[in-house]
Amino acid sequence: MDFTHSSSFRRIAVLFIALIGLVMFSAQASAQPFEPTTTTLQASPTTATVGQQVVLTATVSCPGFAPGGLGVTFFDGSELLDTVPVDANGQASLTTSFATEGPHTITASYNGDENCGASNTTTTVDVSAEPTPPAPAPEPCGCGLININVFSNNANGREAA
């Protein structure tokens, strides 16, 4: 074995190790932990009929919050409804309606951003059948009305009308 270039080899090895250390430490220095978030969800109304519009409003709280981010994704059970951006007040709203009766478990999932971690919450919207409109009142038909002419005899024997 010839180690005539051992000093060059050492320099490359030291440079390589230094480069690895720089990458590892800079990644750790730039990585910031996510702030914890809290997401709340309101449905208005909480009881609805099939086809009635319901407004879902998610509110995100995070100390390092910036509007937008990856938004809030709304689910009805496992069905994706939509993903909505978060406004400057930390809110994302979705107007929807339901085609089936029964309880609908709605999940609002905040997807996080570079400062805030993800969080989610659920609420329930109870959906009933659309009410049957009342039957119209029957129109008077005049059926069953009888005109009666009453005649009487007066004392002189003539008919009076």
For the structure shown, list the relevant keywords.
161 residues; alpha+beta; Immunoglobulin-like; five-stranded mixed sheet; three-stranded antiparallel sheet; 1 helix; 16% helix; rod-shaped; Ig-like_fold; Bacterial Ig-like domain-containing protein
What's the arrangement of secondary structure elements?
Elements: H1 6-30, E1 38-44, E2 47-49, E3 54-61, E4 68-76, E5 79-86, E6 91-96, E7 102-110, E8 119-128, E9 152-153, E10 159-160
Parallel strand pairs: 2-8
Antiparallel strand pairs: 1-3, 3-6, 4-5, 4-7, 7-8, 9-10
- Principal-axis shape equals rod-shaped
The rounded Rg comes to 39 Å
Strand content: 35-45%
Provide the helix percentage.
Answer: 10-25%
Say how many strands there are: 10
SS-based class: alpha+beta
Flag low-confidence runs.
13-30
CATH topology heading of the domain at 38-128: Immunoglobulin-like
Outline the biggest β-sheet: 5 strands, mixed
In the CATH hierarchy, what is the class of the domain at 38-128? Mainly Beta
